Amino acid sequence: MGMFDRIKCDFEIAEKEIQNNEFQTKDLECFLNDYLITKEGRLLLVSDDGSTDLEFHGDLNFYANLGRHPNDKDWQWYNLKARFTEGQLQWIKRSSV
Q1: How confident is the chain (97 residues) per 10-residue block, as mean pLDDT?
Q2: This model's pTM is above 0.85
Q3: Which of 10, 30, 46, 74 minimizes the number of CB atoms within 10 Å of its CB?
């Protein structure tokens, strides 16, 4: 399974059913850090000492699921991709990867 980081997303996404979920990603440091995509579209590293704007540039893949088990009829997997340009979120889309 390996390590990952956690992401919360305050930015409004199209998939309302998972808006308040905690997501995981392996695209950052993979040290179980906490990150936040703000309503304004910035990616922050969140720690006990406060938050730091990463000024992230590039694509960030993150994922979550609904339901308890893949065999449940209502279980669904969500891969999302966020594109940041010079620290500013451009879009978030559901992705197949």
Answers
A1: 92 94 96 98 97 98 84 84 98 87
A2: yes
A3: 74
